[in-house]
Structure of L,D-transpeptidase:
Amino acid sequence: MRWSWTKRVKNVRVFLVLFILAGSPFWPFDAEFLPGDPLIIVNKKTNELAWVDQGEIRLRTKVATGKTNDLTPEGIFTVKVKAVNPYYRKKNIPGGDQRNPLGSRWIGFDAKGTDGRIYGLHGTNQPHSIGSYVSEGCIRLPRMSLESLYAQVEAGVR
């Protein structure tokens, strides 16, 4: 009984904190975004990504971001495109090819007014780069983390 009581109290505390934040002028998101909504958060300072759904962190992983701070855009964006074995247009490399730097999945978002085919979360053929500042602006994930995230995220997620 004690465990379930502790769990209930913890859930109430989390709910209250989220409720207070949602009604606060300091809520960091726009009015259309509510606590509990699915959300992908990328921390460029620590090169970490968190996938939060229904108020719980479902996935947390190291990532690689832009070579310079300005390359990986900052803001609230929406997932627009998802692809398995994405084609790499820049060097004409088909999806599934080991030379393809995008890896096995693409989750594209609408940064800087784009349509989800320029900026995205993707895999890498250079797994040693994860945790580094090396990309042209996209966010590289380890294969297993990317494939797990891909299976859970739908178009429209921010």
In short: The chain has one domain: 39-151. The helical segments are 2-22, 143-152. The longest strand covers residues 56-62. Confidence is low (pLDDT under 50) at residues 1-27.
